[in-house]
Amino acid sequence: MRRIAVLASALTLAACTSTDPYTGQTKTSNTAKGAGIGAVTGAVIGAATSSKKDREKGILTGAAAGAAVGGGVGFYMDKQEAKLRQELAGSGVQVQRSGDTINLIMPGNITFATGKYNIRSDFYSVLDSVAKVLAEFKDTAIVASGHTDSTGSSEMNQTLSENRAGSIKRYLADSGVAAGRIQAVGYGERYPLASNNTAAGREQNRRVELKLEPLK
């Protein structure tokens, strides 16, 4: 079993680490993680289905096939993340990654005027960049979620969050992203990122998020 793990790991070791151009830190890519898991799984299957004479060849063949399958989704999302970071650099939109999910955090102060749900005209170019990437990566489902601070009534905040998420959805759809891929939801003041007791905290809480996940 140790021999299987060593051989499988050798196939993906070169791709396991990369340097994040935004932090300068070395990290393990999601592609490499998936490929590594797939490689070990494929190697085990290859060993189990090969004769004793051809076991080493079966291990290598199975590991290579498993790595390709395991790294597929991760590689797709890695490419999409890199493209989004490139397009959104300096825009004020945060790009966050968790497993195979990409989250775009769009602060309220750059997307909408206070209490409004019409997208600010100076934010159009940023959304155009987002739409360009999303139209290219068609195998991604998109959830646009609106969030507010706790100022005002919860009913008003819920409606505002729904309308803002809907505005983002319509803009993306009008910009070439298939509407069927996009879901719009409003969460009002329910999921704050920071305390609503300070102006800085309330500013963080006023936002629209786009969650991007691979289509199943």
What features would you describe in this structure?
The chain has 216 residues and is an alpha+beta fold. It has helices at residues 2-12, 30-48, 55-88, 108-111, 124-136, 154-174, 199-205; strands at 17-19, 26-28, 94-98, 101-107, 140-147, 182-186, 207-214. The chain has two domains: 2-85, no CATH class; 91-214, 60s Ribosomal Protein L30, Chain: A (2-Layer Sandwich), CATH 3.30.1330. Helix content is 50%, strand content 18%. The protein starts with a helix and ends with a strand. The model is unreliable at 18-25 (pLDDT under 50).
List keywords for this structure.
216 residues, five-stranded mixed sheet, 60s Ribosomal Protein L30, Chain: A, alpha+beta, 2 domains, elongated
CA radius of gyration is 22 Å
Instruction: State the helicity in percent bands.
Output: 40-55%
The largest sheet has its strands arranged as 3-4-7-5-6
N-to-C SSE series? HEEHHEEHHEHEHE
Uncertain stretches of 5 or more adjacent residues: 18-25
Relative strand content: 15-25%
List the domain count as a whole number: 2
What is the global morphology?
Answer: elongated
Mean pLDDT comes to 82
CATH class annotation of the largest domain: Alpha Beta
How would you characterize the largest beta sheet? 5 strands, mixed
CATH architecture classification of the largest domain: 2-Layer Sandwich
CATH superfamily of the largest domain: OmpA-like domain
N→C terminal distance: 32 Å
CATH fold category name of the largest domain: 60s Ribosomal Protein L30, Chain: A
DSSP helix count? Answer: 7
What structural class should be given to the helix and strand makeup?
alpha+beta
Report the count of strand segments: 7
